[in-house]
Amino acid sequence: MSEEVKVFGAWGSPFSRRVELALRLKGVQYEYIEEDIFNNKSPLLLKYNPVHKKVPVLLHNGKPIAESLVILEYIEETWKSNPILPEDPYDKAMARFWAKFLDDKCLPALWKAGWSPENEREKAVEEACECLKTLEGALNGKRFFGGATVGLVDIAANFIAHWLGIIQEATGHELLSAEKFPHLFKWTDEFVSCSIVKESLPPRDKLLAFFKDRIAGAMDAPTEASK
Amino acid sequence: MAEELVLLDFWLSAFGMRVRIALAEKGIKYEYKEEDLRNKSALLLQMNPVHKKTPVLIHNGKPVCESLIQVQYIDEVWHHKSPLLPSDPYQRAIARFWADFVDKKIFELGTKTWQTKGEEQETAKKGFIESLKLLEGELGDKPYFGGENLGYVDVVLVPFYSWFYAYEKCGNFSIEAECPKLIAWAKRCMQMESVSKSLPDQEKVYGFVLHLKKMYGIE
User: Fold this and answer.
1) Residue A79 DSSP SS3
2) How confident is the model over B89-100, as a mean pLDDT?
3) A192, B26, B97, B171: which one has the fewest Cβ atoms less than 10 Å from its Cβ?
């Protein structure tokens, strides 16, 4: 039986890259469709995600799924090789907790701290560092959040491993330093060094140019346009 | 082996109600501990150091936090009785999508209907009704979101029904007039003991909301 898997994404979106990474980790072939999320969303995207009108959307044999963490759980349940979630219900609950923490608290705080105007920066940076400190604790000296191999939480934290460093370079403000968060810093290296991860990351120079371009203007949070 | 289950909760919390319903649906015995949110217990702070919030489900001494995660955990551990999530992966994804939608829209917009006024309140009311209408669309002609029985989305959404009266009084609008199908669904859920015993009385919720409004200085 032929399997039809399509991903509607945006090259710079950490959320759509999460989906691509999970599919690649499980050796699933898929067709990628690039969406112009800022200017011209396709009729297909609007048809497959009428509620949020965002990327990523996974289309499996014609059936659409939206929201990256929901998609990751679906991928895990559908393609069994290279599991990204533990079997034990408690460990699974912990992984889901950290993935949610990333999406609800950590990523918004990091994004805010990256783009805050001068007068709001100190507070934003403090909140962002609290989140990074919490993640450092969650990593607990492990190689990956998933243990020996890349798991759901690592995939969900892709923004920290790749996008954050580029934003730091574009803005000139450092958040994730090796001194303050040694384990998390090391994790970013471990994560991006995996060949499958490397293949699924947007090109560094292209992202850097993108962020530098938008530095002066107002910028929505990543969940708005690029999610 | 004796199972020890403790739920740290706050009577008014829609999130806590979700867990109560899930546990009741599966006939699981547990110890309920009411938290005073102005004076959080040492146990709560120890068991949920990251968010310091209720509900917290403590299973044999190990804490699970965040209501959607707790309900899924309960469903997985006690999977043999009254399953809440469907077995088909695609149907599970749809259920998770709508649970996420409820979290993103219903709580925040509902809260704004009583915490704000003027134009902000009108915008919140409009968004709230629009979101409920989308949920009505998802419900369709099914008796429950879960089909013939209570499912994950029912458990996730129905607690907010206990707050509807408060939203309506504070926002001066009728949810039933706009979303009759959804109210019919909610009343249907309330006929289940697992739901009716887990939700506080609407008037009591409204009374507390009035008290909160006074405290926050919202007119």
Assistant:
1) coil
2) 98
3) A192
